[in-house]
Structure formats: C-alpha cells, structure tokens
Write a structure and sequence with these properties.
heterotrimer; A mainly alpha (97); B mainly alpha (216); C mainly alpha (542); A: 0% strand; B: 216 residues; mainly alpha; Four Helix Bundle (Hemerythrin (Met), subunit A); 7 helices; elongated
Chain lengths: 97, 216, 542
C-alpha cells in the first residue's frame, strides 16, 4: 500500500516538473538566443518526453528488452535523418568532374 | 492450473507472467512503428526548415500560440490522470478508476475542441493549402510548405487522439461493468502507454510548430 | 499439465476440428490462418503473373505486339505492385511463418491470435482495394509512385491503390509484431536463442525490418494522397518542395523491403540444406547473426536507387560504399551453406532442388547487385533491363523459389500427405530452366542499353526478347505444375507421418497434420538446432 502511495507522489512530482518545463519552453521562445532557440526547445522537449517515458510509461521498471525496442527505434530515426542529410548537406558542394 | 488464473490467462499462454510480458512488449513494438511513422514527417520538416528558415518563422507566427500552449498543458494533465487511473486500477479502486478515465476523456475532448477551433481560425485566415491561401508573397511558396506539414502533423496527431479517446471509452465501459481486475489491469496499462506516446508526439510538435523564432 | 495433455490427445487434427466455412473465416488458429494466407497470396501471385506474361507477349515484337503504350504502362505497374505488396512481402512470413513459428518454438499459438486474424482481414481488404483499382483501369505510375507524376499528373486510380497498400501495410506490421513477441516470450523451456532454428532467426530479422520500415511507407503514401487531394503538398516543386525527398522516404522503406522478401527464404534454405545433407549448419552463429546484420545494413543503403535522381554526388558516394557492406553478411550465408554441403550425405528431394536453385540464383542476383551499387556502372545501366534482371534474380530466383520450396518442405506437415516427389523434381527443374531463360537474356539486353518500362524497343533486341518470352512460358509451366500435384496429393497422396524428411526441429515431433493446440505436451528442449549427428547415432544404435 505504501509503495503505491510513494509512486503516486512520484507521479505528482513528475507532473509538476512537466508543467514547469512546458512553461519554460514557452517563455524561452520569447528570448532571442540566436541559433540556440531551437536547441533549447528541443532539449526541453527531450527532457519532457524522457520524464513521460521513464515515469508515466514505467520504463524505469521495465525489462531491458523494452528499453532495447525504444533505443532501436530512436537509432533508426537517427539513421534516417543522418543519411538523408548525407545528400542534403552536400548538395551545395556541386558536382565533381 | 485450476484456480482464478485460468480465466484471465488466454489459452496460448502458460502463465499470467508470460501474458503480461507479451502484452507490454507488443505495445512497445507497436509504438516503435508509430515513432517511425511520425519520423518520416519530422524528417521532411527538418529538411525544409533548414532550406527555408525565413518562411518557417513567418508561417509559424500565424499559428495560435495561446491555443497551442493551453493544449500542451491539457495533454500533460491528461497523462497524469491516465497514470493515476492505472494506479487506482491496480489497487482495485473502481470508482476512482472511473473518475480518472472520465477526466482523461474530458481533457482529450477539450484538446480536440480547441484544436478544431484553431483549424476553423486558420480557415478564416486563409491558411489552408489550396487556392484560398493568403500569406506574405515573398514567403508564400515555402510558407505553404510549412502549412502543409503543419496540417499533416497536427492532423495525424489529432487522428491518434481520436483513436485514443475511442480506446479510453472502451476502458470506461469495461471499468463500469467491473471487468478490470486488479491483478491484471493489462488493458489500462497498454492503452495508457499509447496515450502517453501521443502526448510525447505533441511535446515535440509544440515547439517545432508554434515556437519557431517567436522572439522576432 | 496432465489436463492439457489428455485434452490434446483426444483432439482431432486442426484440419478436421471443424469443417464449416465459418470455422475457417473466424479461426484464430495460426495454422488455419497460414492456409488462408497461402490461398490468397498464391491467388495474387497468379494474377500478377498473368500481367507479367501479357507484358512478355507484348514484347515479342519491337513495336509491341498487343497493347497501346498507356496500357503497357498500367500492366507493368500492376504487375509490380501486386507482386511486391501482395505476394513477395507476405509470401513466406505470412504463410509459412504463421504456420511454422508456433510449432517451431513449441507454443500453442502466436502471442496474439485475434490480432493475427485481423491482419489477414486487413491484408484481404488491401488486396481487395488493389483489385478494385485494377478493375477500374489500374495505375500507370510504376510501382514506385514517383512524385510529381503520381500526385499531380497521373489520371489513373492512385487513391485506391495507395489505400490498398496502406492497409496491407498495417497487416504486415501487426503480423511482424506478433512474430517478434512470440519469438521473444513464447519459446518452449530450454529453447534458448542459440538453439533456435535459423528460419526463426531470419523471420525475426524480417519482422524487425517490417516494424521499422513499413510505417515510413505508410506516411509516404498518405502524403501522396494529401498532395493529390489538395494539389499542393510537401513534395511539390512549385512550392520549393523537393521530389527527391519523396524518393528518400520511399526507398527508406522499399530498399529494406528487398530484405523483407529475401531473408525468410534464406532462413528456410538453411533448414533445407541442413536437413538434406544430414548435417548441422556450418557456422550456425554466423548465419544467425548475419540475418540481423542484413536487417541493419539494409537500412543504410537506400539511396543507391537514386544515383541519377538529382541527389548530391557526395551523398551517392556514401551510399555506394555502404551498399557494399550488405554483401558481407549475404556472402557469409552463401559460404556457410556451401560449407554445410561439403561432405554431407546429400539427397535430392524436391525441397533440396529448390534450395540449391536458390543458392545459385541468389548468388548471381547478389553479385550483379554489386555491379549496380558501383556509382559509374550504375549510371550506365540505370533503368535498363540489367536492373530488371538483377532484381528478378533476387525476387523470383530467391523469394519465389524459396516460397515454393518451403511449401514443399512443410507440405507433409501442413496437409499430412506426401506429394509425388518425381513430379516435384520435374517442376523444380522446369522452373529453374524457364527462369534462367527468361531473365538471363535481360542482363544482356540491359547491358546493351534496352531501357525498362518502354512499350517498344529497337529491332536489334528482338532475338533476346523472344528468348525471354519463351522462357517466361516455361517458367509459367513450372509454377502451374506444383499447383496441380499439390492439390492432387490432398486427396490421393500417401500419409506422411510425423517426420517424412527425418528433419530436426520441434514441428516434426508432433503428428502431421498437428492437433489444434500443436503439442500433446509442451516439449522441453535440451539440444541445439540441427542435431543430425545425434539423430544418426541414435538410429544406428536402435
């Protein structure tokens, strides 16, 4: 019973953190950080997503296989992005003769 | 093998433990496909944002910051009610479970209502892709790319919300009939996973669609 | 446990439990669903095969013998789409995977039997839409749906077709999910990963690809539909959109899809090679992990389909180099199969002929894959019949042969009957000859410069085209023969008994056809896969 109460406390804390981060991301967007606006916004989003995944989706108590599924899908997104940019990033280099 | 377990464990499984394992893993594998599904859109978004930064800033300014922000809070709260519902389910507190499910559904509907209002607003403003499109001419072409992506991404997200609401209503009916057993609330847990995933998608959509260069 | 044993002991086999049509259409038994897939997938194979035969007949004369060019465009598109999405991709996984996986892991069913039935219905709904699209007049975009033709210009039934493929994609995803979960959570006690038959390893790798690649195709098709509906969309060059981005997304799915098609066939070849040379597979671990390696590398090479599409030359260089990496795990498999044959006591039953044919044709297809992965050669042979021949060596010589072979291999288990082996060997030989006669001339044609997807060609190519058409006819005979004698064997075939090939693997421990719940008691595994040596030793003693 007490274990459940503890986990509920954790849920409320995580929720509080999520709300604070959401407010933060909205506020930071008003400040000009140059190219770092995107970076900050994405880092905050990643932290929020991580909190939801680890605590609300119970990744913390999940077997390593579930972690593996998640990591592989994130790795595959990265493959898609990075290799596509092997094309786009080098388009302006022109053709070699 | 006789006893209370036999009725919950489906016949292809050897034990409740095995079934729980299979259910959770199955949902996570499904979420992996969802990640890749939205991944294709995020890729297109990234490519074009790098190609047309000014048009992105311009077009993003036409989305509704207020509605986007409120909806972010609405969805985050709904994720909380989902985990609290699961917590109530494992404790066998049926009335609390029903309460949290109803709250989740109300929050989900609020999100969709606000989103629909926002779409209507875009329509009035002439931001729909198509002949009625009106935006600053120097950016118009690439701004239209942004709007296409905006509608594709938020539209698919809204579609996932609708599916999620359907699943939540299914849970509510089961909970109402007392069919959710504290020792095996698998449906609550798995549908919850789906709901949180849809929430996470929004966590990324919000800064990418609403907050592009807002400081300008 | 006793309870299950007695219940299964008195149980009739899965074919005889119930007879009504309803009991088939609402079944959740993986074996019956496998048979539903077998019937539907084979049906789609013959539909698409007829399109191919019509094309070959048309190409018998340089100006085109039968159709207007517009009709020809639709023919090759429909042939490609139906073959790829409604035969090649679901063939081995959905038919034999469904049938054999629970038997091979020693489980009563897949992890989610209802989901399994749902995927069959989704598959049929998708196939139905594809047929509707064909009946309305078909699609002329090529199976690749390249933008902007497919979005803004084609006047054909792209919506129906895209919807059909989209829905069939869901079927693939759900089936793959089912397989992954089953292999992870439902293995019999003692059946560790390194004791798994290689068929399971390759189906596992295939499922991983299906899970990670199919959704990207789904979103791409949705974006086509979006662009057709609004006449603007994110690939539209008028808006500054990039049609090459469409190709990136499309091939991110469609290149790995090649491995979806070939990996299951490779897995079955490992089973057959071991069984018919009475040896443990040489380098089991290498063969097992090469499946996962192929699944991974398969995702790193997609843009080698796009070398002349306007992507950056430096990007092309990266993809060209990465493409060579896939050859390594593929070669590991071929070398290990060959090494297994060495000093084995080989018997040439029908499945073995198919397996040996697979190795030869796959090797040719794979090696020509290296030619076309080379940037400079690719520019020369791009969009010629060289490409057509190359991928047909993989898909027809590999996957279709694997499908036929694996059906022959498990037929005694599926039906409980033996097929006439003489006829089987004949069909395998006819098919092999017909195949090479059809597609080898196309290598020459392509190298000489005959473009693919044209309804007409230069007169000097006629001789080779006629050869190819003649070969296609023989190949057709090679496909119809098994249909006849397999159906014949259902009624007149001899009883197979549990293990007619003397093969290892849990599926051969249970009666043929298996009882509804597969095993009278859950088997406990204390041996590694392909323990043919132990088996022979035991036979010697008794």
């Amino acid at each position: 019973m007490s274990e459940q109460a503890v986990s509920r406390t954790v849920y409320y804390r995580v929720f509080f953190a999520l709300i604070v981060l959401a407010a933060l991301t909205a506020l930071v967007a008003e400040v000009n950080l140059g190219p770092f606006n995107v970076t900050v916004a994405l880092v905050i989003a990643l932290v929020k997503a991580g909190l939801v995944a680890v605590y609300f989706m119970h990744l913390r108590e999940s077997r390593s296989l579930v972690w593996l599924v998640l990591l592989i899908s994130l790795a595959w997104i990265m493959i898609m992005l990075v290799l596509t940019f092997a094309d786009y990033a080098t388009r302006s280099w022109g053709q070699f003769r | 093998m006789d006893g209370p377990e036999t009725s919950i464990v489906a016949e292809q499984f050897q034990s409740l433990e095995q079934q729980k394992d299979a259910d959770t893993l199955g949902m996570w594998v499904f979420l992996a496909t969802e990640i890749m599904f939205f991944g294709g859109l995020f890729l297109a978004y990234t490519v074009y944002r790098i190609m047309y930064p000014e048009a992105w800033a311009e077009a993003s300014g036409h989305t509704s910051f207020a509605i986007g922000t409120i909806n972010t809070f609405v969805l985050l709260t709904s994720s909380l009610t989902v985990v609290l519902g699961l917590d109530a389910a494992t404790l066998g507190r049926q009335r609390k479970l029903i309460l949290f499910l109803v709250l989740t559904i109300v929050l989900g509907l609020t999100f969709l209502l606000l989103k629909g209002f926002e779409y209507y607003h875009h329509y009035k403003e002439g931001l729909f892709p198509g002949p009625g499109f009106r935006l600053e001419p120097e950016y118009a072409r690439a701004a239209l790319l942004f709007m296409c992506l905006y509608f594709a991404m938020t539209g698919l997200h809204a579609l996932h919300m609708i599916v999620g609401l359907g699943l939540m209503s299914f849970l509510l009916i089961r909970a109402w009939r007392g069919l959710i057993r504290p020792e095996f609330p698998a449906h609550v847990e798995i549908i919850g996973l789906y709901w949180h995933f849809v929430d996470i998608v929004w966590i990324f959509l919000y800064p990418l669609l609403y907050l592009v260069d807002r400081h300008q | 446990m006793d309870d299950t044993a007695t219940r299964a002991g008195t149980e009739p086999d899965y074919l005889k439990v119930e007879h009504s049509l309803r009991s088939w259409l609402l079944t959740t038994d993986h074996k019956r669903i496998g048979i539903l897939y077998m019937i539907s997938v084979t049906g789609f194979f013959f539909i698409a095969g007829i399109f191919a035969l019509l094309m070959r007949l048309h190409l018998i004369s340089p100006e085109g013998a039968l159709f207007k060019p517009e009709t020809y465009n639709r023919l090759f598109t429909m042939h490609g789409i139906i073959m790829v999405w409604f035969f090649l991709i679901p063939s081995i996984p959905n038919v034999l995977g469904n049938f054999a996986i629970p038997l091979m892991v020693g489980a009563r069913d897949l992890a989610f039997p209802k989901l399994n039935l749902l995927s069959w219905y989704l598959f049929m709904a998708g196939g139905g839409l594809a047929i509707v699209s064909a009946a309305l007049g078909g699609v002329d975009t090529g199976w690749t749906f390249y933008i902007p033709f497919s979005s803004n210009f084609s006047k054909t039934h792209v919506y129906w077709m895209a919807a059909g493929i989209f829905i069939a994609g869901f079927s693939s995803i759900l089936t793959a999910l089912n397989f992954i979960v089953t292999i992870h959570t439902m293995r019999a006690p003692g059946l560790t990963w390194l004791r798994l038959p290689l068929f399971l390893w390759s189906i596992y790798a295939t499922s991983v690809i299906l899970i990670l690649a199919t959704p990207v195709l789904a979103i791409t098709l949705l974006l086509i539909a979006f662009e057709r509906a609004f006449q603007v969309g994110i690939f539209d060059p008028n808006l500054g959109g990039d049609p090459v981005l469409f190709q990136h997304l499309f091939w991110f799915y469609s290149h790995p899809a090649v491995y979806i098609m070939i990996l299951p066939a490779m897995g079955w070849v490992s089973e057959a090679i071991a069984c018919f040379s009475r040896k443990r597979i040489f380098g089991y671990g290498f063969v097992a992990f090469s499946s996962l390696a192929i699944a991974t590398f398969g995702f790193l090479v997609w843009a080698h389909h796009m070398f002349v599409a306007g992507m950056s030359m430096y990007g092309g260089l990266v993809f060209s180099v990465l493409s060579f990496a896939v050859a390594v795990p593929s070669a590991i498999k071929v070398f290990n199969w060959t090494a297994t044959l060495h000093k084995g006591s080989i018997s040439y039953h029908t499945p073995m002929l198919y397996a040996l044919g697979f190795i030869g044709l796959f090797t040719i297809g794979g090696l020509t894959g290296l030619f076309v992965a080379t940037l400079a050669v690719n520019v020369h042979v791009h969009d010629t019949y060289f490409i057509v021949a190359h991928f047909h060596y993989i898909m027809v010589g590999g996957t279709a042969l694997g499908y036929l072979g694996s059906i022959h291999y498990w037929w005694p288990k599926i039906s409980g009957k033996l097929f006439p082996d003489m006829w089987g060997r004949l069909a395998a030989t006819v098919g092999f000859i017909g195949f090479n006669l059809t597609f080898f001339p196309q290598f020459l044609l392509g190298y000489l410069g005959m473009n693919r997807r044209y309804a007409t060609y230069a007169p000097e190519f006629q001789f080779l085209n006629v050869l190819s058409t003649a070969g296609a006819t023989i190949l057709g005979v090679g496909y119809i023969l098994p249909l006849i004698y397999l159906l014949w064997s259902l009624r007149y075939g001899k009883e197979a008994g549990p293990n007619p090939w003397g093969a290892t693997g849990l599926e051969w421990l249970t009666p043929s056809p298996p009882p509804k719940h597969n095993f009278h008691e859950v088997p406990e595994v204390t041996w590694g896969a392909y323990n043919y040596h132990d088996m022979e030793a035991q036979d010697g003693r008794s």
